[in-house]
Amino acid sequence: MSDAGELQKLEETFRAAIEAASDEAALEEVRVRALGKKGEISQLMKGLGKLDPEQRKARGAALNQLKGRISALLNTRRQALRDAALEERLKSETIDVTLPVRPQAQGAVHPVSHVWEEVVEIFADLGFSVAEGPHIETDWYNFEALNIPPEHPARQEHDTFYFHKKDDGTRRVLRTHTSPVQIRTMEKGELPIRIIAPGRTFRCDSDQTHTPMFHQVEALVLDDHTHMGHLKWTLEEFCKAFFETDNVKMRFRASHFPFTEPSMEVDINCAWQGGQVKVGEGDDWLEILGSGMVHPNVIRAGGFDPDKVQGYAFGIGIDRLAMLKYGIPDLRAFFESDLRWLRHYGFRALDVPTLAGGLSA
Ligand code: PHE
User: Does residue 220 or residue 350 have the better pLDDT?
Assistant: First the structure.
């Protein structure tokens, strides 16, 4: 066979091998076989020394060209293999963002969280903003500034969790209500005030409708003209929006809180049927909130002049609202972390309550 024929055959062989290589490792083998130190083309290069100058020149040039072409083929094939591998990987790793949320989600949004969001949504619509305060409070914020001096009987009613006394004789408490946020908000010194403060509260108490940790939402409105009519209207609007019906019966009962004057408690009518609680039916009453006009001493403690500033406050039990609205009979189950209970009473993560879309979703 002529030299040229031999090289052409070699080129054909390598070209076929390169095309047949199915991955980069196989391709590398072909490269070594052709161009590696001991590869076939390299061997032929070594043989050039034995030729006479004329032949060497012609064959050397032919071999160099062959080497160049094989190199180019190898590179092209390598790139093609890489592209294909990347393509494959992208295909296997794609996330279809249009897929619906996994239906078999394990958890659920707790009714308290859901109701909390519902309450915030309603009051935000009425122009309130959300304020916060710490769970661990000083005596001043939880009691004293709220017109509950040390010897006041209301201190007993609150079943307070106390911390150990400090060296200076003071002791902190787990806040027994969200009312301390009233003082913390007033302290900022800006009027008018229209806030709600949802949060955790603590009392040493446990039965079907009481747990040692529970939730309240406080409201405080303070300016130079707000009166009891505004309070009553706001509460009625809230109840209609929250229970999503105009039929809820509300009972305003004269009451007493040290931090409001006058004060009233509000009950909602409900029926207990076979361990179920139904709102808007029957003639049992469940207390859901305490309210009243902010006491002058509290306004003073908050840094304002009660002759110039007035307003109302109320505190609603969030857990009570959840029990009533969603017919959950026992409050203690709220905090037992029983996944079966949560699956039954919980909400889907995407069911965010909105006034437009429906609160309970
Ligand atoms: N802090 C009261 C309670 O926990 C509720 C309340 C708040 C009453 C504001 C009146 C005004 O029972």
Answer: 220
Please indicate, yes or no, whether the overall pTM of this predicted structure exceeds 0.90.
no
Any residues with CB less than 8 A from the CB of 204 and at least 6 apart, and which? 159, 160, 161, 212
Give 18's contacts (C-beta < 8 A, 6+ positions apart). 27, 30, 70, 73, 74, 77
DSSP for 261-294 reads: EEEEEEEEEEEEETTEEEETSSSEEEEEEEEEEE
Q: How confident is the model over 328-341, as pLDDT tens digits? A: 888 889 999 899 99
Q: How far is the CA of 44 from the centre of ligand 1 (A)?
A: 99
CB 243 within 8 A of CB 139: no
Give the residue numbers spanning the domain of 41.
3-92
**Ligand 1 atom nearest to 294, measured from its CA:** 11
For residue 245, the tally of other CB atoms under 10 A from its CB is: 11
Alpha carbon of 89 to ligand 1 centroid (Å): 61
Are the CB atoms for 206 and 195 separated by under 8 Å?
no
Q: Is residue 98 in a domain?
A: no
Are 257 and 329 members of one domain? Answer: yes
Nearest residue (by CA) to ligand 1, atom 8, is 290
Strands 136-137 and 284-294: unpaired
The length of the chain in residues reads: 361
User: How confident is the prediction for the chain on average, in pLDDT?
Assistant: 91
Q: Is the CB of 177 under 6 A from ligand 1?
A: yes
Q: How many CB atoms lie within 10 A of CB 75?
A: 12
| Nearest Cα residue to 207 out of 330, 101, 334, 312 | 330
Measure 277 CA to ligand 1 centroid, in angstroms: 24
Residue 352 lies in a domain: no
Residue 168 in any domain: the answer is yes
